[in-house]
Design brief:
Elements (H helix, E strand, L loop, with lengths): L15 E3 L9 H5 L4 E6 L2 E5 L6 H13 L5 E3 L4 H6 L21 H11 L2
Antiparallel strand pairs: 1-4, 2-3
């Protein structure tokens, strides 16, 4: 299925992706699975998926990236129930009857902007 958000074109095609221009250079994905996610640009730092998961071990680490990421820029656009159940807030498509799709995490700067605009 197509991604819900615009995927960064520097990542390899596939279900796991980084939202274009959302990477904040936290380095967390590279620590978890550098063979899956690495830097695709150095100035400013921007990461991307250099390889999609190909084994159960890869999939487990890809899910861990989605769980541990700081800013919600890594997403999943596939239909694998293991991923959908593990990190529904990071999935573009949620397929559980009678359950609304969770809202994606908002980047920290968007949260700050929202607070400034609302005055809270």
């Amino acid at each position: 299925m197509p991604p819900r958000f615009t995927a960064d074109p520097r990542s390899v095609p596939g279900d796991f992706y980084v939202i274009q221009n959302e990477c904040m250079g936290c380095g967390i994905p590279q620590k978890i699975a550098p063979e899956l996610v690495n830097w695709v640009e150095s100035s400013p730092q921007h990461c991307g998926w250099v390889r999609q998961p190909a084994s159960k071990k890869d999939l487990k680490r890809a899910i861990e990236i989605l769980k541990q990421q700081d800013f919600g820029c890594h997403r999943y656009a596939g239909m694998d129930p293991r991923v959908l159940q593990s990190v529904p807030e990071c999935c573009d498509y949620f397929v559980q009857p009678g359950v609304d799709m969770p809202q994606p995490r908002v980047s920290w700067w968007r949260r700050i902007l929202k607070r400034l605009i609302s005055g809270s």
